[in-house]
Amino acid sequence: MKRREFITLMGVAAAPSFLWPLAARAQQTDRVRRVGVLMGPANNALGQSWARAFREELARLGWTEGRTIAVDVRWGEGRSERYTEIAAEFVRLKVDVIVTSSTPAAAAAMKATSTIPIVFMSTGDPVGTGLVTSLARPGANATGLSNQTSDIGGKRVALLRELFPSLRRLAILVHADNVAAMLDMHEVQAVASTLGLEVATLEIRSAEDIAPAFEALKGPALGLYVVADPLMNSNAVRINTLALIAHLPTIYGFREYVETGGLISYGSDNSDQFRGAAHYVDKILRGAKPSDLPVIAAPTSTVASLAAKVTTATIPIVFGIGEDPVRLGLVASLARPGGNATGINYFSQEVDAKRLGLLHELVPKAVRIAVLLNPANVTIAETTLRDVQEAAPRHRAANPCPQR
User: pTM of the entire structure?
Assistant: First the structure.
C-alpha cells in the first residue's frame, strides 16, 4: 500500500472530517494547542526525520507551529525511566495531546495520565499489551497505529528461511523490558519451532549488552531476528555492524535498519506512522475523542539491502535497486555481472538525464532547477543529485539546488 493511500485510509477510518477542505482546516482556535511527542529512541538523524514527518503533516493539515500549535519533542533513548520522566513532564506542562512512538513509551504515558489524549504508534499488539480494549473501540484516552508485530513475526521468520533454505538455527535479539517485544519473541519462537529451527534467545536490557550477545552466537547455519524496539533503533548501526562482521543473515522489523546497512526488513514505515499520527492529533484537537477513533494497522512492506552481497558470497542474489550496481560494487559490469548477484537497475544515470532533458523541453527558459530529495535515503539522494548535476550542463542549467 502506498503512503498516500495509507494516510487517506487512516483518515477516513478515523473520522469523516478528514475529507474537509484544507482551507476549512486552517480555521483554528485562538489558543495555541500544545502537543508533547515522546520519542522512543535517542536523538539522532533517523529520529529527527520521523519528527520532521510529523511536523510537516501537521502543517499540511492547516496547523502553523508557533501560531496555532506548539510541538515539544523529547527523546526517551530507549530507557524506561526516561519514558516515565518525560510523560510526567508533559502532564505538568498540561499538553493537549501526548504522542508516543513505542509500546513502553505509550504505557508510561497512560500510567501518567488518564485524561490527556494519547496517540501511540510503532506499538506491537495494543490489545495484548493492554493499551486498548479493542482495535475498533479503544476505550480510555489512547488510540493510534499498530505495527501488527505479533501477527507478522512469523512471516519474517518464514521470509528469512525462504531466502536462506540452509538455515537451521535462529537467534532472537530482544529487549527484555519491552512487553510488546517479548510478545513478538514468543510468536517468533512458536513459528520457528514449526519450521524445525533451533531457537536461541538473547535478552538484553541496555546497549552494553549487545556486543556480549553477539559474542555468544557461535556455530553454522545461524540466522538472527532482531525484535523492533527503541533500544534496538538507537543502536541500529552497532547491531548491523556486528551482524555483518559475523556474516549473519538478519531480519528486522523496520526499513530504517536496512537504510543503515541491515540485510532485510519486513514491517511498516515509521515516517508514514508519524504522518498518520498527525491525523489523529488533528482529529483530537478538533474535538474527537480517542475512545471513538479506531486503532489502524500500519501497512507492511519488504525492503532488502545491499548488505546481502556482504552477508553471503554463495547464495544467488537478484536485486532491484535505484543506484548504479557497478558503482556500488555489486557487479563487475552490467553485461557480465560476475559473482553471485544480478538484477534490475530501474533508475540509471541515463534515466535521470532524460528526465532533465524532458523538463528542459517543457520549460526551455529554465536556467536553475531544484532537486527534491529524501534525506532518510542517503544513497539514492546522493546518486540522484550527482547524476542530475552531471547532466545539467548539457541542458544549460545551472548547478541544481538540492532541497531536502
Answer: 0.61
